Structures are given as C-alpha cells and as structure tokens.
Amino acid sequence: MGVNMRIFIIFVFSLFLIRPAVALDVTFLEMNAEFFFDHQEPHGRVVGTVPNMPVPTEAEWKAKAKRIAQKIDDIGANIVAMIEVENRTVMDEVKKNLANADSWHVIFKEGRDNYTGQDVALLSKFAPDWSSVTNFPDEHEIYVVDGKEQSTSPSKALGVRLTVSGQPVYVIVGHLISRRSSNDAKRHAQASVIRRQAIKAMNRGENVIVSGDMNDTPGTPVLKLLRGFDDIWGDMFQTANEIPKNDRYTYTYRNKKNLLDHILISPS
Question: Which of 17, 40, 99, 145 is the most buried (most CB within 10 A)?
Fold first, then answer.
C-alpha cells in the first residue's frame, strides 16, 4: 500500500452509563485513522509534501474507508470517534460502507488546523441534537511561554449531544497539539478548554464521554486536568484502567508503548 502502513489505532470500550432507573448500553470506539485523506486538493502542508506521506489515489483512500467500516462492523460499535480525518467526504465514504448505513449519522464540523489539514469526526447510531454540534470556536485559554501570554483553542475538537435510551450523552472528541517542539503549555491550555465543556455538560445533568488523541499519557498534567483532578467537579473515569496493563497502549514509539488516545467517562 502506498498510504500509511499503520492504518489505525483502535481503542474500544463498552460503557454502561447508569442513571437512576436507566442503563445506557453504549459501545464506544475510538479510531486514529492516521491522515485519512482523499485525493482532492487542498491537503494542508503534510500530505503530498512530506516524502513518506504521498497524496493517496482515489482507489487507495476508498479502500481504506472500506477497511475502517469493516472494523467498525466487526467490533459492533454504535458510537465511533474518528481522529486524523480530512473532511466530510471521507466520513461519508466510511458510512456508505457500513452495514445498515442508513442507521448511522455522520457528525462533522470543519476545524481550524490549516497546517496538517487533519480533523475529527463522529459516527453515531444514536440521534444527535444537530443544534448542539460545535467545534468550540469562541472558547479560548491563556497560556504563558517565555513570560509572554498567548491564547489558544483546540483546532481539532467536536462536541455534540446524543440521545441514548431517552438520556442525554454529551460527547467531546479532541486531538490536542503534539509533543513535538515546546508545546506542553499550549496542549495544557487546549485541554482546559475541553475540560470546561465537560463540566458544563455535567452541570446540565448529562452523561459525558471525552475521547481523543490527547498526545499525553496517564498521570501527566494534561490527563489530570482532563480527568478533573485539578477542580471540584466530577472526576472522569479512565476506561483504559479496566484492561490488562500490558495491553494499555495505543501507540509504539522506539519500542516503547504509550497510551496517547483516551476514552474518559463521567461518574454518571
């Protein structure tokens, strides 16, 4: 294959979100599709520019869409968070290849990452509140680098309210800035924006799922912030703690296993 030897990182977790008298049976899948782009321009400043990241042919990316859809069907997920997708086009192609395609909703809102051209999206078998779909364009956080204040917002983030068995489930999908260069303060600030949205949803009485490629590992300031260890609101559960420690990773770098992709759920 000429496109992306590592097709996708997968992390799936079956959730039984319980509120009084109602159990919500949700199988949530997160897939890092690693530069899942189509063949049409524009592509940002990575795909088609970096030597080992060629622009895929139409046949290649459509074949990748089929493989992604097959994996979703094999797992039997009913909510899927997609990371590193280019646009609505590739998401529609995945949906087209899913079993019972008409039962799925594609939830996408173009993000603000003009450098990589990457975005995030959601597939759901549960009805979304379309008026709630947002990529948080007005949410910002201040951080300090070299004594200078700067402002940031996650360029790849998506929030939506779903209805599951009559109960509201607020899903946030995020992809925070990478650990390359000196991005720690900026990534922490982006995580603050996501945490605020989770708090707002919990205060509305909603079940909350926060998922995505956070580019940070458990126990770091970013994950402590996202889980709620830095504030007085509800602490999020780390679903990865429920699987054997040796399997608790989503990425291998220089033979070291890392858990960079996370699915966090609210106490409800």
Answer: 17
Per-residue pLDDT of the chain (268 residues; tens, 9 = 90+): 344 434 455 666 777 665 555 678 899 999 999 999 999 999 999 999 999 999 999 999 999 999 999 999 999 999 999 999 999 999 999 999 999 999 999 999 999 999 999 999 999 999 999 999 999 999 999 999 999 999 999 999 999 999 999 999 999 999 999 988 789 999 999 999 999 999 999 999 999 999 999 999 999 999 999 999 999 999 999 999 999 999 999 988 889 999 999 999 999 8
* pTM for the model: 0.93
Distance of CA 215 to the CA centre of its chain: 11
CB 187 within 8 A of CB 44: no
| Residue 221 CA: distances (Å) to CA of 91, 186, 192, 210, 217 | 32, 12, 11, 16, 9
